[in-house]
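Our working data are protein records whose layout never changes between entries. An example says more than a description, so a record of this kind follows.
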Amino acid sequence: MHKVDTRNRPCPKPVIMTREALKSHGLPLEIVVDSGIPLLNVRRFLENLNISVSFFEADGYATLVCTEGDQPEGGPEAETAGKRFEVPEDVAILICSEVLGRSDRELGEVLMKSFLGTLVEREQPPSLIALMNEGVKLALPGSSASESLEALQAKGTEILVCGTCSSHFGITGSLSVGTVSNMFDITGSLLRHQKNLVLG
């Protein structure tokens, strides 16, 4: 039985590691996860795949066991895990802030990094990410999200950076990822996509 140890990993890494293990190794599978929210997230992920799980908790972590008889109907669990929860092919994301949410900037930075990092783990990344207003600062080499944006660009995501915004903040010459663009091109690109998501 393949074993995955997801302890001490930030959200949503335990779920991503579980999904990758299902795709690579199938069932049976043993997953070690921190108690509390990480356990709830992994259990919910597995239940959404119609995989029943037995588990026990001790010393602040839990061990979940999925066996051959628990795989969902209609095909291998690995295929299901690979296709469920993927973003549609034609999605554009407009990001207008360095952080996700408004009440706590430190938390918002963590959430934005996690959001973009999760997009990297998807087999099908968004077609376009447009950065405007403070969102252009995510394209700076020292930002917490720059590595994720670079990885998304390498996977084929087009990244457009508002030139007016980068000029306003005086960072145009320092950008490490994306193409400096303008409102006309960014608007046109967003409207060409079937689905749009706006953050910030």
Observations:
- Residues 105-121 form the longest helix (17 residues).
- The beta strands are 2-5, 29-34, 54-58, 61-66, 91-95, 128-131, 158-162, 179-181, 195-199.
- The two ends are 44 Å apart (CA to CA).
